[in-house]
């Protein structure tokens, strides 16, 4: 059931799916192949338009199929569409819109339906009828103008209910329903509603027909007129109710005067949904049906169609046939008994008697007795003298036209099936699951009254009997009968092979028909295959074959008729070559299991004869197990088993398949037993040439119906289509495996042989004996269990052997061979021992069962044959498994070795690639990674130690390919040169004279340069040889074994090379060059084959999984690269800042402490101030004095900075401190990462939570503050192997550690170091020497008190006049009074300071304070000696005196 590729495939797809009763049979979806070169440049609108042009509405598909089909195919399509609950065409529009449409009546005549009305009149009785002739209410639906509600969708809801998903009518909501209709406008479809008397299931109480006119009714006047006049009621869908619609409505009323149109039937559809409209319409129809609508027949509607001007499909030939059939079957009105006696005289008791005599005569021949004269006389008395048959047969004989024959046959069948006396009572079986007793009673009654339920098969039986009994003395019309039967057979009319009532086979009649078949098909001997279906009469065998192959066979279960029938399928030419036969013969056994009462023994014999006869003819047997066999299941089972045994005895046994129509316990058990029986009997016997296509297994398929031609009210199971397809595939596969020999293709020969054996009862198990069948089936079931036990035992032994094989060293050839040889011997002994136990069990079982014991001579050889085959099969399987296990062990070892080596090489490459990616920060693309992997792959394949093959010469394969090439090119005359292929070449290829024709050589001899021809040919050959060398090197570089395709490619390369250069050469040049290069290929590729010979499984595996290796390689790189990048980001964004902060945080304090311990001036504010004043004298710099006096705080800060810088420049302790801190923090980070690894090792994890955990551990355990804000966002949230990530992280941590350590050991700028510190040492030192920030309000000298909570400020060294900031900024002069020795008060302007500011203490008047002024006097002299005149005693003050006075002042303070 393939999807159609193009619109032209849709009709065949529709028919194929319809025959499978597929729900999507009307689908028009195609796998349209768009041309990318033509489609890519189109706009989306253009592409959509192109798709719409290639689409078709499902209604157009159905219409086109019906227009194209003949009337017989139309009837078959209609029957299946009605069963699938599809609407079928009633009025078919003409392809030419100018011509009238066609009313389809003939297809509807083949549709038979059954229903149970809720009416009291019928009292729940099953009713049946022909759709064409049964009076039923017809409700027609039309549309006027545009309508917002989908008419077809409403009708689907009306017929099936709103909860159902069935689409009886195609609507716009279905696939393809939106495509504009091109052919089906004006189509009238009908659907059939059939109640079942099930209150929960039925929507309406009575049956009716609903018709649907497609398109706007105003555009199809004839169809509108027909619908209005022929319908019981008309439902009009109208959108905009304008003047035109009103006029049309009035005309509809005028045309349908007889219709009943109630006022309340008007629905406001425009304001309602589809469901609400359908619900309202349902309520109206429930009130109409069944009492308020007039029933109408479609036959009457056809007459109206003719009057209106439409065509009716029933041609004059069809009408003549119907009239002829009516005339012939008039006798049925008098009763079926009288009709049979008059029209079918040969089928009475005389024919039965003749069959009995024929069997007696066969038994005499079997026992080699002479035939009694009395039998001959009785036969002569029975044979008719001159009887050429009934009126029906006479009509068939005299009719010349083939179509007339088919119409006669079809009309007769329909007439007989629709006759109440012949069909009604049995039709009720459709509703009776347990109808076995009824069928038996009916059959018994028919035998007692010597009447039969008539079918078309009885008339054809009569025709065959006329030929069989009067052929030697018959007229020309009689001799025409085989030709007529052969033509009908080819047109689908079945042929009766065996009369099941009389148990007789008309051999001459059948032989003549097959001779005519050969002649008709223009073949001397037809290649045939025979497929037989065998099952209980309730299994509906004919219906199953119809569902599988579309053939029409006699449905014996309807009329309780018995017989073996055959239909013929002539295969198309394309299938004949593939399947190796011309005709498929489908054989159906009807009436099996109808035995009842006192006739039970005779009927069982007849059943055995039919079943044995049918199985004996079969290539493939389909055993059909009915779900409703009831108590007959055991009897039928016995007949089937005993018949299989007889067929086995005949020497031909078919391939058996089982069809189970129900999964009930009884059916499943019967299928299981039959499968075991077939398995026992299908064991091939090599000594029996006739059983050459027997198999060891049988297939079982479950298919739940209904099959075609069942009750139209039954639903189709959803799995039906798939199950039927599976069954057909199984059957055709079995037919294809039947390699029938030529002598067995003679079907009639096989038939005669089988019938002779059956009618003479030449079997060890007689036709009367069916009691042993059950015992034999139990024996087969028991044997199957024994067989399973043996195989299980060998499997258990094989497990132990596997353990031994695996325990050996895989690649040790000697040890492997020795162990394998030992295990094979042990396996043979083990199987032999188990089979010996089986033989003992079988003998005991046969002797314990009485029925089996009586036939032990028959069964014991069969069992022994099965056991011998089982021993051979089990031994062979164990040997193969041992070889496979051993080879698999070696291959797995090689694979593991290869994968380990590949993993190692990949690891090296991955590490290098990750390092490259890390250093270049370039992301590699997939194609670059694939190239990198390819380099690893080639290296691995070239260096891996593959197992060499044993001596296996490839030269024969090379020679075979070359031979086929020369044959294809018509160079057979050079075949003798192929003997040198494979021999070692010692010289290069040389062009010689024989490579050129005589004329070519003569032509070039007269030219000046007569060697040019050879040179050109040699250049061409050398060029091709160079190409071969490249080709060979390329193939040998691949990790693949030698293939014959290499030689094919080589030969094509040579031919292309010679084609490129136009040379006047003979074919010998091409052949010699090919042989030369093939010899070279033998040598080159032999090495390749020797290298890879034993490791084909490894090569296959690694090349099949190469893409997986590539993907894994890329995945590993991506993951590692991703881990690398995320770890790098974590180190750079989180860890490194953390480490630097940890290192630098205490450094400022540590540096300050070192300076404090080293420099005494930083021990107190006084010491620092003293140090500053001392430095001012020592530096002797005016700018320093200026900075000190004007910007004391900045000057003080500068002095501290200079001290810190000088200290850092002279010491190495900072480096040691940094290294120490670095080691501490890195160790704490590593510990935190290791702690996080616990519990996450070896699993895929999200890195973000784990990194957050690392940070928390550092904060909690190491008391390190971590800035976690950087972890926000998707950058750090990847899923990877935590171990891999930790490895990258630790590597980067070590790299960072090393880098920082190297940075710390290098000489760096002190200022840069200070900038990295979180706490500057200057700040710490400043806090030590800072003291009080207050300044003298007069001289701006700093307060020298150290106590933090002092209230009165004082300065040890107030600044004198002349050195104040304002004096420094402008020139000044000291008066004599100010420079006198006793003028201290005038010199110090801060005298009486409390008067200026109460928070300051007064300047001391003691001598020490005055001595301290020596410092300022020295400074004044030092700074302004050239600008001013100073007292002599000032100028005599030395630097040491000034410093002593300074020390005295500060020293006194320190003492205080």
From TrEMBL:
Segments of this protein annotated with the region Disordered: 358-383, 401-422
Record-linked PANTHER family: GTP-BINDING, UP-REGULATOR OF CELL PROLIFERATION-LIKE
Composition-biased stretches (Polar residues): 409-422
PROSITE patterns per the UniProt record, alphabetical: G_VLIG
Domain VLIG-type G per the UniProt entry, residue ranges: 525-627
Pfam name, any one: URGCP_9th
Organism: Xiphophorus couchianus (Monterrey platyfish)
Record GO terms (molecular function): GTP binding
Protein name per its UniProtKB record: GTPase, very large interferon inducible 1-like 2
UniProt feature, compositional bias: Basic and acidic residues: 358-382
InterPro entries: G_VLIG_dom, GVIN1_dom, URGCP, VLIG_GTPase
């Amino acid at each position: 059931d393939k999807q159609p590729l193009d619109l032209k495939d849709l009709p065949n797809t529709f028919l194929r799916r319809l025959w499978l009763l597929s729900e999507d049979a009307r689908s028009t979806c195609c796998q349209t192949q768009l041309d990318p070169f033509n489609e890519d440049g189109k706009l989306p609108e253009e592409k959509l338009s192109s798709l719409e042009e290639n689409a078709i509405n499902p209604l157009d598909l159905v219409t086109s199929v019906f227009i194209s089909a003949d009337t017989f195919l139309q009837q078959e399509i209609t029957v299946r569409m009605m069963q699938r609950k599809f609407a079928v065409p009633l009025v078919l529009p003409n392809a030419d819109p100018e011509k009238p449409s066609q009313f389809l009546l003939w297809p509807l005549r083949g549709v038979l339906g059954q229903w149970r009305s809720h009416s009291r009149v019928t009292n729940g009785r099953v009713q049946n009828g022909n759709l064409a002739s049964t009076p039923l209410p017809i409700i027609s639906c039309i549309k006027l103008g545009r309508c917002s509600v989908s008419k077809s969708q409403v009708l689907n809801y009306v017929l099936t209910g709103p909860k159902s998903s069935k689409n009886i009518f195609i609507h716009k909501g279905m696939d393809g329903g939106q495509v504009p209709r091109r052919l089906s406008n004006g189509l009238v479809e009908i659907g059939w509603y059939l109640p079942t008397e099930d209150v929960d299931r039925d929507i309406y109480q009575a049956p009716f027909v609903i018709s649907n006119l497609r398109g706007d009714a105003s555009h199809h006047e004839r169809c509108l007129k027909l619908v209005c006049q022929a319908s019981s009621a008309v439902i009009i869908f109208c959108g905009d109710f304008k003047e035109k619609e009103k006029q049309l409505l009035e005309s509809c009323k005028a045309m349908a005067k007889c219709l009943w149109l109630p006022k309340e039937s008007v629905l406001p559809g425009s304001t309602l949904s589809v469901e609400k409209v359908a619900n309202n319409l349902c309520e109206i129809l429930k009130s109409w049906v069944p009492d308020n609508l007039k029933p109408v027949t479609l036959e009457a509607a056809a007459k109206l169609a003719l009057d209106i001007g439409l065509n009716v499909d029933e041609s004059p030939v069809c009408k003549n046939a119907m009239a002829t059939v009516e005339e012939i079957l008039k006798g049925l009105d008098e009763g079926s008994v009288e009709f049979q006696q008059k029209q079918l005289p040969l089928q009475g008791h005389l024919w039965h008697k003749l069959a009995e005599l024929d069997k007696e005569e066969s038994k005499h021949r079997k026992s080699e007795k002479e035939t009694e004269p009395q039998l001959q006389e009785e036969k002569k008395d029975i044979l008719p003298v001159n009887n050429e048959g009934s009126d029906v047969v006479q009509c068939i004989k005299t009719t010349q036209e083939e179509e007339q024959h088919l119409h006669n046959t079809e009309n007769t069948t329909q007439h007989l099936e629709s006759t109440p006396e012949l069909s009604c009572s049995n039709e009720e079986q459709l509703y009776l699951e347990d109808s076995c007793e009824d069928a038996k009673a009916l059959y018994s009654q028919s035998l007692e009254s010597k009447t039969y339920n008539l079918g078309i098969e009885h008339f054809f039986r009569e025709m065959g009997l006329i030929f069989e009994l009067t052929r030697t003395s018959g007229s020309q019309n009689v001799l025409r009968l085989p030709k007529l039967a052969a033509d009908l057979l080819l047109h689908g009319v079945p042929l009766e092979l065996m009369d099941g009532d009389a148990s007789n086979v008309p051999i001459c009649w059948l032989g003549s028909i097959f001779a005519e078949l050969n002649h008709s098909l223009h073949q001397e001997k037809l290649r045939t295959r025979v497929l037989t279906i065998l099952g209980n009469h309730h299994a509906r065998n004919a219906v199953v074959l119809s569902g599988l192959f579309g053939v029409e066979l006699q449905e014996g279960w309807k009329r309780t008729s018995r017989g073996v029938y055959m239909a013929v399928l002539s295969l198309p030419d394309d299938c004949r070559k593939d399947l190796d036969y011309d005709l498929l013969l489908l054989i159906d056994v009807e009436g099996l299991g109808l035995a009842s009462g006192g006739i039970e023994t005779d009927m069982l014999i007849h059943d055995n004869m039919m079943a044995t006869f049918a199985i004996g003819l079969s290539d493939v047997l389909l055993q059909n197990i009915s779900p409703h066999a009831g108590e007959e299941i055991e009897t039928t089972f016995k007949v089937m088993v005993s018949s299989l045994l007889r067929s086995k005895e005949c020497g031909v046994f078919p391939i058996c398949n089982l069809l189970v129509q129900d999964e009930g316990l009884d059916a499943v058990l019967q299928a299981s037993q039959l499968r075991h029986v077939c398995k026992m009997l299908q064991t091939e016997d090599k000594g029996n040439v006739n059983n050459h296509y027997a198999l060891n297994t049988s297939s079982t398929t479950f298919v739940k119906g209904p099959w075609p031609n069942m009750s139209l009210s039954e639903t189709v199971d959803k799995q039906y289509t798939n199950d039927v397809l599976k069954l057909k595939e199984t059957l055709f596969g079995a037919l294809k495996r039947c390699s029938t020999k030529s002598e067995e293709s003679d079907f009639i020969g096989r038939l005669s042989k089988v019938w002779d054996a059956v009618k003479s009862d030449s079997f060890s198990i007689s036709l009367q004996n069916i009691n042993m069948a059950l015992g034999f089936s139990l024996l087969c079931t028991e044997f199957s269990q024994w067989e399973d036990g043996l195989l299980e035992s060998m499997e258990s032994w094989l497990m132990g052997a596997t353990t031994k094989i695996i325990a050996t060293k895989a690649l040790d050839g000697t040890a492997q061979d020795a162990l394998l040889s030992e295990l094979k011997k042990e396996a043979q002994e083990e199987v032999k021992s188990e089979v010996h136990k089986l033989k003992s069990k079988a003998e005991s079982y046969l002797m314990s069962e009485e029925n089996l014991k009586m036939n032990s001579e028959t069964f014991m050889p069969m069992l022994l044959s099965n056991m011998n085959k089982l021993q051979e099969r089990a031994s062979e399987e164990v040997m193969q498994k041992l070889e496979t296990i051993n080879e698999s062990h070696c291959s797995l070892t090689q694979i593991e070795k290869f994968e380990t080596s590949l993993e190692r090489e990949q690891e090296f490459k991955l590490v290098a690639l990750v390092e490259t990616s890390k250093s270049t920060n370039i992301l590699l693309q997939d194609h670059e990674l694939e190239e990198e992997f390819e380099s690893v792959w080639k290296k691995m394949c070239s260096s891996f130690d593959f197992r060499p093959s044993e001596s296996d010469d490839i030269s024969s394969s090379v020679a075979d390919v070359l031979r086929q090439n020369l044959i294809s090119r018509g160079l057979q005359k050079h075949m003798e040169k192929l003997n040198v292929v494979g021999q070692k070449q010692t010289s290069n290829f040389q062009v010689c004279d024989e490579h050129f024709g005589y004329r070519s050589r003569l032509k070039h001899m007269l030219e000046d340069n007569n060697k040019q021809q050879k040179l050109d040919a040699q250049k061409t050959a050398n060029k091709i040889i160079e190409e071969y060398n490249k080709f060979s090197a390329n193939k040998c570089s691949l990790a693949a074994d030698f293939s014959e395709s290499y030689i094919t490619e080589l030969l094509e390369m040579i031919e292309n090379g010679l084609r490129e250069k136009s040379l006047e050469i003979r074919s010998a040049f091409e052949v010699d060059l090919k042989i030369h290069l093939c010899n070279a290929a033998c040598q080159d590729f032999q090495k390749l084959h020797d290298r890879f010979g034993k490791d084909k499984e490894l090569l296959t595996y690694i090349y099949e999984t190469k893409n997986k290796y590539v993907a894994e390689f890329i995945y590993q790189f991506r993951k590692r690269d991703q881990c690398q990048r995320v770890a790098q980001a974590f180190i750079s964004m989180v860890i490194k800042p953390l480490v630097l902060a940890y290192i630098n945080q205490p450094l400022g304090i540590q540096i300050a402490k070192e300076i404090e311990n080293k420099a005494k001036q930083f021990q107190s504010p006084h010491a620092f101030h003293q140090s500053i004043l001392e430095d001012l004298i020592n530096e002797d710099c005016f700018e320093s004095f200026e900075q000190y006096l004007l910007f004391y705080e900045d000057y003080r800060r500068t002095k501290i900075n200079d001290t810190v810088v000088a200290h850092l420049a002279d010491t190495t302790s900072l480096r040691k401190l940094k290294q120490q801190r670095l080691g501490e923090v890195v160790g704490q980070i590593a510990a935190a990462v290791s702690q996080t690894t616990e519990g996450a090792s070896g699993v895929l994890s999200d890195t973000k939570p784990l990194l957050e955990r690392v940070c928390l551990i550092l904060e909690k355990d190491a008391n390190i503050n971590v800035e976690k804000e950087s972890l926000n966002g998707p950058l750090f949230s990847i899923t990877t192997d935590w171990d891999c990530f930790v490895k990258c992280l630790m590597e980067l941590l070590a790299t960072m550690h090393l880098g920082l350590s190297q940075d710390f050991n290098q000489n760096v700028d002190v200022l840069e170091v200070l900038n990295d510190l979180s706490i500057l040492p200057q700040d710490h030192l400043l806090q030590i020497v800072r003291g009080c920030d207050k300044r003298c309000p007069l001289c701006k000298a700093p307060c020298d008190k150290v106590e933090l909570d002092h209230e009165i400020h004082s300065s040890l060294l107030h600044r004198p006049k002349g050195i104040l900031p304002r004096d420094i900024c402008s020139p000044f002069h000291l008066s004599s009074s100010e420079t006198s020795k006793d003028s201290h008060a005038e010199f110090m302007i801060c005298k009486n300071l409390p008067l200026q500011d109460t928070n300051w203490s007064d300047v001391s008047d003691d001598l020490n304070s005055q001595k301290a002024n020596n410092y300022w006097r020295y400074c004044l002299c030092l700074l302004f000696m050239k600008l001013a005149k100073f007292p002599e005693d000032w100028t005599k003050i030395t630097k040491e005196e000034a410093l002593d006075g300074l020390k005295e002042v500060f020293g006194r303070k320190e003492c205080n």
